[in-house]
Amino acid sequence: MVRGSRKIQPIALHRGKQTLELILKSGEHIYGQTGNPADISCLNLERLLGTRLDYGLIHEHYGSKKEEILEKYNLDVPYIALVRADVVGQRIEDHPLIKARRVYSNFQPDKCDWQRFVNLPTKIGIEEAELLGIILADGDIMFDVGVMRLLGSQNHVELYEEMVSHRMEQVFNIPAPVVYARRRRNPRIEIASKAIKTWLIEDLGFYDVNKILKFLPEKRQQLAFFEGYIAGKGVIQERTMGINSYRQQILEQMAELAQSLGIRIGKVHEYKYTSSMGKASTMYRIYIHSGLRELHLLNPWHQKKLGIDSE
Predict the structure, then answer these.
(1) Secondary structure of residue 137 in the 3-state scheme
(2) Chain centroid, CA 227 distance in Å
(3) Could you give the CA distance from residue 110 to residue 121 in angstroms, rounded to a whole number?
(4) Which of 70, 160, 243, 293 is the most exposed place for a label (fewest CB within 10 A)?
């Protein structure tokens, strides 16, 4: 019985009629072996019991609670999540996804999100706002497979390694390792989570800056969000900071945000070019004319190029 590299040792069980007590005892054994509630899965329980789970028995015990959660929170909690909560001695209402539902009404998790205890921040502080800015800048949400991918350039290596990966794990409670393409040292982070994907799109309103700002009412939050966006999209030419994007609307909205924060921004410039594959493309760019040294530059590459201390 293996999850990752941890082997769950067998347990001597009475292989008679399956009871809820037997199921919970098996879950306690798994939890005692690994210390990780995520290992209390249907597959591991069935391997330990030596037979398929009696879902009729589980429904009989947890069915009313499942219906209560669905009616109250519009969340279809899996039966195994209810079993898991009993094993570890927690109320299902204390699961991070139910806590998030008290703040956000539209996201929808899948079974893996329940199992991994995926977290959605119920309060967006400075660190969360910075991360949202980076996700807006570098994020590519693939709707068909439910994956949120961050794609960086070679100028993002330190940013991803030293900050973004750890920040994503801290905020979402999910591993976010940095990986690289074989031939190019371009960092990439991929997270497969329906809860995170639907939270970003359905609750926060990605990719509409004005919708996102409704969750960032304070100026310091908005500034952190802008600084995160610069970390991902910022470019430097002759010691001048610019911001590039293929999304004209986002860039125009970010320029409006910067102006409201007292940062002087130039007008949006349009650049047409032909890619190496022969495809005609359009890039949009704005330049920061003043207020740059008052910004907290999150990307170490920007700090080095401009000679600005990150502190």
Answers:
(1) helix
(2) 18
(3) 18
(4) 293
The residues spanned by each domain of the chain are 1-94, 126-306
Statement: the pTM of the whole predicted model exceeds 0.70: yes
Q: Which residue pairs from 265-272 have beta carbons closer than 8 angstroms and sit at least 24 positions apart in sequence? A: 265/289
**What is the distance between the alpha carbons of residues 111 and 79, in angstroms, rounded to a whole number?**
10
Two tokens, residue 247: 């999304």
The H helix count followed by the E strand count for the chain is: 14, 11
Give the separation between CA 127 and CA 221, rounded to whole angstroms.
Answer: 9
- φ and ψ of 183, to 5 deg: -100, -20
Q: Which of 9-18, 213-222, 296-305 has the lowest mean pLDDT?
A: 9-18
pLDDT tens-digit series, residues 66-99: 999 999 999 999 999 999 999 999 999 999 999 9
CB distance 117 to 61 below 8 Å:
no
Q: The tokens of 86 are what?
A: 């009993």
Which option is the CATH number for 126-306: 3.40.50.300, 3.40.190.10, 3.90.1150.10, 3.10.28.10? 3.10.28.10
Structure letter (DSSP) for residue 86: H
